[in-house]
Structure formats: C-alpha cells, structure tokens
C-alpha cells in the first residue's frame, strides 16, 4: 500500500497540483486508512502494546468496510464503463489497478477474519458511521469542486445534485451492509456470534 501511495508522488498528474491533492479520491482515502491500520497493527505486534492494538482495531472498523465499498463500487462502475471512474489519460495498467482497488480490501478482510477480535458495533452504529463518512466525503468532494472546477470522478459530473445524494446514501448503506456481512463472516470463520449485533 505504501508503494501505491508513493506512486502518486513519483508519477505526477495535474491532480498533484489540485486542491485536495489525491485525497479527493475515495480510493486514496481508503489506502491511507488501510496503511494506518496496518501500521498500527505492526506496531501492536512489535511492541505487544494494547493501546496500538485497540487503535488498530478501531481503524479496522472504518478501513475494512470502506475498502470493501471501494472495491464494490469501482468494480461495478468499471464493468459498465471505466471512463465513469477514471479519465482515459489517467488510467493505469491491470496490476496497479488491482493494487489500488482490490488488494487493500482483501488484505484487511483477511486480517479481520483471522487475526482480529470481533467488532463491537451494532447495525445502527454501523449505519450512522457509514452515513456520516459518506456525507463527510460528499462535503469534501464539493469543497474540492469549488476550488478546482471539476469533480474527481467523471460519474459525479454526469449526476445532478439529487442523484449525487442518492449515490452517497446508497454508498453509506452499502458500507454499513459491508460491516454486517463482515461480522457475519467473522462469526462463521471463528465460531459463535459477533459482538454488538
């Protein structure tokens, strides 16, 4: 993941000079949260620190379903038309594409299912967290648009404000659903129920 983030610096585009830099993209925000999650996990393992472990698990509750959401949305939109997500001039090869849009979700899911405690988050809390994240991101995207005059994802240009609201509500619900599916998978892999149901 560090390599993915470093490639943004090593391969500059006009995005490097734009307001919000690459953090306009949900993919990059997800990569940052995934990187923080794994860094905290590594520190917890190296130091046997309960504090690092708690923070790693806290970040995991956000980063893992966010990466699952990113993989799902990206895969769905790309299956229709890749130009909806990435303009032709910024499209990358298959391996970096998989590295940006699938690998973090897979690694975080495996980490949660095999090496982490169950999440203690109820569906109501998951829905609140996911909706707050979705609308926080929408606010950020609109802030970047005011400064740059363009949206980070071409699909946003095609949608009217009411349809963008629908998209962000759907994304929040999908992220909350991802939390519930991951908790269910955790209970099946590790036996028993998960906390916070």
Classify the beta-strand content into a percent band: under 5%
**Radius of gyration in whole Å, from Cα?**
17 Å
Give the overall pLDDT as a whole number.
Answer: 88
Number of strands: 0
Your description of this structure?
The protein is mainly alpha-helical. Helices cover 73% and strands 0% of the residues. It has 8 helices and no strands. Helix 2 (26-47) runs antiparallel to helix 3 (50-80) and helix 3 packs across helix 8. The longest helix is centred in the N-terminal third of the chain and has 31 residues, at 50-80. The chain is globular and about 45 Å long. The mean pLDDT is 88.
Supply the key terms.
single chain; 197 residues; mainly alpha; 8 helices
Could you outline the blueprint of secondary structure elements for this entry?
Layout: H1 2-10, H2 26-47, H3 50-80, H4 94-101, H5 103-115, H6 123-148, H7 154-158, H8 161-190
Helix pairs in contact: 2-3, 3-5, 3-8, 5-8, 6-8
Provide a compact summary of the structure.
The chain is mostly helical. The protein has helices spanning 2-10, 26-47, 50-80, 94-101, 103-115, 123-148, 154-158, 161-190. The radius of gyration is 17 Å and the shape is globular.
């Amino acid at each position: 993941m560090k390599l993915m983030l470093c490639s943004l610096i090593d391969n500059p585009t006009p995005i490097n000079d734009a307001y919000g830099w690459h953090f306009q993209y949900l993919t990059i925000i997800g990569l940052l949260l995934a990187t923080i999650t794994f860094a905290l996990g590594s520190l917890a393992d190296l130091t046997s620190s309960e504090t690092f472990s708690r923070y790693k698990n806290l970040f995991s509750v956000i980063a893992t379903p966010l990466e699952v959401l990113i993989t799902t949305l990206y895969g769905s939109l790309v299956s229709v038309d890749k130009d909806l997500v990435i303009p032709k001039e910024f499209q990358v090869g298959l391996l970096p594409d998989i590295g940006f849009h699938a690998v973090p979700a897979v690694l975080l899911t495996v980490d949660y299912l095999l090496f982490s405690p169950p999440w203690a988050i109820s569906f109501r809390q998951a829905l609140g967290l996911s909706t707050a994240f979705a609308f926080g991101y929408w606010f950020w995207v609109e802030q970047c648009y005011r400064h740059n005059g363009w949206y980070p994802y071409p699909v946003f240009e095609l949608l009217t404000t009411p349809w963008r609201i629908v998209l962000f509500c759907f994304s929040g619900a999908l992220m909350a659903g991802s939390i519930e599916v991951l908790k269910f998978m955790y209970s099946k892999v590790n036996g028993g129920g998960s906390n916070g149901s």
